[in-house]
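Closing statement on the 5,6-dihydroxy-NADP sub-project.
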Amino acid sequence: MQKFNVYNPTQIIFGEGRIAELAEHIAADARVMVLYGGGSAERNGTLVEVKNALGARHVQMFAGIEPNPSYETLSKAVDIVRADKIDFLLAVGGGSVIDGTKFVAAAALFEGDTWSILQQGGTNIKQALPMGTVLTLPATGSEMNNGGVVTRLATKTKLPFHSNLVFPQFSILDPTKTYTLPARQVANGVVDAYVHVMEQYLTYPVNALVQDRFAEGLLQTLIEIGEQAVQEADNYNVRANLMWTATLALNGLIGAGVPQDWSTHLLGHELTAQYGLDHAQTLAIILPNMLQLRRKEKHAKLLQYAQRVWNITDGNDEQRIDAAIAKTREFFEAVGVRTRLSDYQLGEECIEPVLAQLQAHGMLQLGEHQDVTPEQCRTVLHMSL
Ligand code: NZQ
Ligand code: ZN
């Protein structure tokens, strides 16, 4: 096992009806900005519950954080936070709203060009406003981690940032708030969480026994409940398990002391920025082919994955690996996320622009061995047509 630090200060407040407890977690004299998306939180009643729970506090509402939150929109929130002397941020929504709020938290107190936060991956964040979240979409794990992803629309640049200063202080996870999700977003959540586990698990063995078993348990849970979660909108137990699984998939625990890949994510970000595909759609397209292309480097873990996650024991090593990759693709398709570029009306012409952006963003050495080059990404995209 490699050296590691685990730091996670986010308190999780899990279960039905817990939004009512909001006031216990925010100072009575706080000046609060509530940030949300395109209106789903308003329509399904979450926002009213939040407002009621905040009581007499000074509350400023900021609506309109879009999926794949834009730097342009978030900069407007930063201006209001500064002008209105807001001192606490509350994100109500999915990963995009939470990521966007993390950026606002850091940018509001940042001196200089706030885009440099993204250019430097968050390493230049010196302080941030405190924030909390009310999660409405199980997927990203942003509710319990220190990362965010922001897109600059003007240049089609989608970049991640990390800082321990943007961990939410608390996150309220009420599974009933997911009941209004469209099937497409639930499916996206299942696939995103699955790929988060894979990017931390499917590399090479480092004798991290519990991280491996934990990761395999998360994958098997997603396989067990994934289709049901998409089909049964108001099944509390299924939604509760999905919510907690997605949080655990990217809160630092399974990634502690193990090599991490993230090539599928970083290539996927370029596809979203260029062509507007949902985050999880890009992952479903790329992951099976990334595993296929790098099956030599990932050989030992692919065999472990085949046996322990999919119970594949027949055939020789190569046949088992093929079967495990095929199962992975079938699972994504079964929950309803298509796995080919052509399923999204994208053909060969989409590849070079994505490659150009990848190179422009300095993504030249991806993966757990830093050996996934733009050349290999091009091959993966060709395999994905
Ligand atoms: O905008 P509203 O109206 O709220 O609608 C949203 C949005 O259209 C809707 N929605 C959310 N909760 C709902 C709901 N609709 C009905 N009922 C509800 N309860 O769902 C749509 C998608 O929301 P979004 O927040 O964009 O989805 P998701 O949670 O999948 O977040 C995706 C973003 O997270 C980033 C992605 O790159 C992408 O920008 N990621 C963040 C990570 C992190 N911080 O650790 C890691 C991930 O790998 C990912 O990159
Ligand atoms: Zn993701």
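Residues 37-41, 44, 67-68, 93-97, 99, 136-137, 139-142, 145, 147-149, 177-178, 180-181, 185, 188, 192, 250, 265, 279 surround 5,6-dihydroxy-NADP (ligand 1) (CB under 6 Å). With this model delivered, the sub-project is considered complete and its resources will be redirected to Aim 3.
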